[in-house]
Design brief:
Elements lengths: L2 H27 L6 H13 L3 H11 L8 H16 L3 E12 L2 E12 L3 E2 L2 E3 L10 E3 L1 E3 L8 H15 L7 E3 L19 H8 L21 H9 L3 H24 L4 E4 L27 E4 L1 H12 L5 E10 L4 E10 L4 E11 L9 H20 L6 E8 L7 H10 L1 E2 L4 E2 L6 E6 L7 E5 L7 H8 L9 E3 L8 H5 L5 E6 L4 H5 L12 H19 L22
Parallel strand pairs: 6-7, 7-8, 8-9, 12-13, 12-16, 16-19, 17-18
Antiparallel strand pairs: 1-11, 2-3, 2-10, 4-9, 5-10, 11-13, 14-15, 17-19
Length: 561
């Protein structure tokens, strides 16, 4: 074969290959290409003109904790609506859902030890507790009862408790937790994920056979992270069964304490260390249950001191004052909704969200004012840059998350599908995807795929421009306990971002130290830029985000066979 002929054939082959690649490859390779010029504009806006910390300060410092159903939550939501409108966001409104439960307000409180020496006690009332009849003074009685998520075990423990303390609690302040030693500080309180941590997280979990959960005899971890992971393995029906059964038993305990004449109760949370208190709900927020006895979460150190004095037969007296207000009936709550209208595919929607509600011990900054402020900032950045997006971008800030993802589940059921029946609405086919932020105030390090491997190349592409800012890790794993689960439960693409822990799990999560000071500005700005870029590219993708197979209905429709 002559050299000329070889060259001609090679040239022909080259032209053929180029022609094929030119006609096919760009269509496949470029449909998810990141527009770096837009990324640069987003970074500049998010870093040089950031409003995220100002927003967080107003939500937390000015309006404080945002317990679902409270005046503070309503006032903070009204301010947020105006904030979004001022940014030019369209159709901003409070969308009601419910009924939720009682509204409840904390007015004032004090907890003190007056004998054998005066000491002001660091304590926080639990939500949905009743007022004391003015200032009350009582002696403490150590009467621990184990907190359990097993209804059977809870009833057994209650029966033993009633038998042991009947006739012994009149005028007493009941110490309902065991005095446990303060754990030694073995872990750093502030933690950023190392490359090794992220590499380990990126590994797929070892396949295991599905474990059958014995609802009546549950063993639930005390550690918040492990507990969150445990509940992520359960269905919503199982979780509802667990909490409904346990709430009934706790209501019986409350009735017993009130009937026996106890004036207040103290608990020391197993998570408590370093003088923290963790104040959540007493046992129930629905009006069908009576308000709880005045209950306080007390620091473990001070709680243990009282316990040691009792053990030494020393006279201890406690002075308690609690003033709360509560409604008699269940009320509706709301979600905060707003959007940036799309262009060519404006009937299709990309949603972003975070939960807006919080517990009342701190000001709800890292859980989850941070996520809310970042998502508000994402909307501001996208609108300020006047970026052209094919799909509509919608924000949802949810209430009722702390009581069981109630706000986001109500929204999904109304707009997309009922997980009980899997009957879908016309909007179901138009939601391209949902992105959530709710694991503290740490910077974004990557994304959880929620078992959706089809999203891996998309997240890899979208996060690539931010590798020098610490992000890019992808894991097939899921993180449980937050609002993306409401979307995933009906087969919609719903995702949560990996975030640096910082001091979230160790220090601020549901504690009285959940305040603005624990949200680093650099992390908040980084998260705003990353999510704004992801949303922009998802909104302009030629196709909808890939979906997993539709889940089965959780239970049959009423009357069906």
């Amino acid at each position: 074969m002559s050299r000329i002929r070889v060259l001609v054939m090679r040239g022909t082959l080259f032209i053929f290959v180029v022609a094929v690649l030119g006609s096919v490859a760009p269509a496949q390779q470029n449909k998810d290409r990141v527009d770096l010029s837009v990324v640069q504009r987003i970074k500049t806006e998010a870093f040089d003109h950031s409003q995220v910390m100002n927003t967080l300060s107003m939500i937390t410092d000015r309006y404080g904790p945002r317990l679902t159903g409270s005046v503070e939550a309503q006032e903070a939501a009204d301010w947020t609506v105006e904030r979004l409108k001022s940014y030019g966001i369209h159709s901003v409104h409070l969308e009601p859902w419910g009924p939720f439960g009682r509204n409840w307000e904390l007015q004032e409180y004090s907890v003190e030890m007056t004998e054998p020496r005066y000491s002001h006690l660091r304590a926080t009332p639990l939500a949905w507790t009743r007022s004391t009849p003015g200032v009350v003074i009582g002696e403490p009685v150590l009467a621990p009862i184990t907190r359990t998520y097993s209804a059977k075990k809870a009833q057994e423990d209650l029966d033993k408790f009633e038998a042991a303390y009947r006739g012994k609690l009149q005028g007493k302040i009941v110490l309902l937790s065991d005095p446990d030693p303060v754990p030694a500080a073995t872990d750093a309180l502030f933690k950023r994920d190392s490359d090794a941590d992220l590499a380990e997280m990126s590994k797929a979990p070892t396949p295991t056979q599905k474990v059958q959960v014995d609802i009546k005899n549950l063993q639930v971890p005390d550690d918040p992270q492990k507990r969150r992971q445990f509940f992520s393995t359960l269905t919503e029906d199982q979780i509802d069964q667990i909490f409904d059964a346990v709430k009934d038993v706790r209501a019986k305990l409350n009735d017993f304490l009130v009937q026996e004449g106890a004036v207040a109760g103290f608990i020391s949370d197993a998570r408590t260390k370093g003088g923290l208190t963790f104040a959540e709900q007493a046992f129930a927020y629905e009006a069908k249950y009576p308000l709880a006895l005045p209950l306080f979460s007390v620091t473990r150190e001070q709680y243990n001191r009282i316990g040691r004095l009792i053990a030494k037969n020393q006279t201890v007296k406690l002075r308690v004052n609690l003033k709360t207000t509560a409604g008699e009936k269940d009320v509706d709550s709301f979600n905060i909704i707003g959007e940036i209208p799309g262009g060519a595919k404006k009937d299709e929607v990309i949603m972003i969200g975070a939960h807006f509600d919080s517990w009342h011990g701190g000001t709800g900054a890292t859980d989850n004012g941070a996520g809310s402020a970042v998502m508000i900032e994402v909307m501001r950045v996208l609108q300020a840059l006047n970026l052209k997006m094919d799909r509509t971008v919608r924000i949802g800030l949810w209430t009722g998350e702390e009581e069981g993802l109630l706000g986001s589940m109500a929204y999904v059921k109304q707009h997309f599908a009922d997980p009980a029946t899997m009957k879908t609405t016309p909007e179901f086919d138009k939601l391209a995807g949902y992105f959530n932020l709710d694991n503290g105030a740490g910077e974004i390090r990557g994304a959880y795929l929620q078992g959706n491997d089809m999203m891996r190349p998309l997240f890899e592409e979208w996060l690539a421009p931010f590798r020098d800012l610490g992000t890019g890790s992808i894991t097939i794993r899921n993180t449980g306990g937050t609002d993306h689960l409401s979307f995933d439960a009906v087969g919609l693409p719903g995702f949560q971002f990996i975030q640096d822990e910082l001091d979230y799990s160790n220090f601020t999560h549901h504690s009285d130290m959940d305040t603005y000071d624990h949200a680093p500005p650099a992390d908040m700005m980084q998260a705003s830029a990353v999510i704004a870029s992801v949303v922009y590219h998802a909104a302009n993708r030629s196709e909808m985000l890939p979906r997993k197979p539709l889940p089965e209905a959780r239970k049959a429709e009423p009357g069906s066979k």
